[in-house]
Amino acid sequence: MYDSIGMSENGWTDDFLCTQWFRESFIPQAKACNTSGKPILLIYDGHGSHMTAEMCILAQENNIELFCLPPHTPQCWCLQASSAALDGTM
User: Fold this and answer.
1) Who's near 24: CB < 8 A, 6+ residues apart?
2) Is the pTM of this model over 0.70?
3) Which domain holds residue 49?
4) Residue 2 covered by a domain
5) Whether 40 contacts 64, CB under 8 Å
6) Residue 44 lies in a domain
7) Residue 30 CA to chain centroid, in angstroms?
8) Is residue 46 within 8 Å of 67, Cβ to Cβ?
9) Tens digits of per-residue pLDDT, 64-79?
10) Is residue 4, in this structure, part of any structural domain at all?
């Protein structure tokens, strides 16, 4: 089991916390679930702390494709995409 709790002084996410989450939580969990060996797709919003140079390097090293949603993308798109992925129609 992977446990990860990060906190910042002001309560908001930042570059450090996001990269730490990506390295210590997302990568190990995603790789453990990836039985096909195909690239892993991470869909994320365009918040400034959600993309750092270190995350790009880590993604490349771990066969992870990063897809940033365009600004002002409705939240319902994400829900529709995730449900389609869950039932295998994507």
Assistant:
1) 2, 4
2) yes
3) 15-86
4) no
5) yes
6) yes
7) 9
8) no
9) 999 988 776 666 555 5
10) no
Contacts of 84 (CB under 8 A, 6+ apart): 90
Say if residue 27 is exposed, middle or buried (CB neighbours under 10 Å; 0-12, 13-18, 19+): buried
Name the 3-class secondary structure at 33: helix
Q: Provide the number of structural domains found in the chain.
A: 1
- Tens digits of per-residue pLDDT, 34-68? 999 999 999 888 777 677 899 999 999 999 999 98
Query: In this structure, what token pair is assigned to residue 73?
Result: 């993308």
**Is position 6 within any domain?**
no
Nearest one of 68, 65, 2 to 38, comparing CA atoms: 65
Reading the block at residue 65, the tokens are 């494709």
The two tokens of residue 44 are: 């994320």
Check if the beta carbon of residue 13 is closer than 8 Å to that of residue 49. Answer: yes
Q: C-alpha angle with apex 63: 4 to 55, nearest 5 degrees?
A: 50
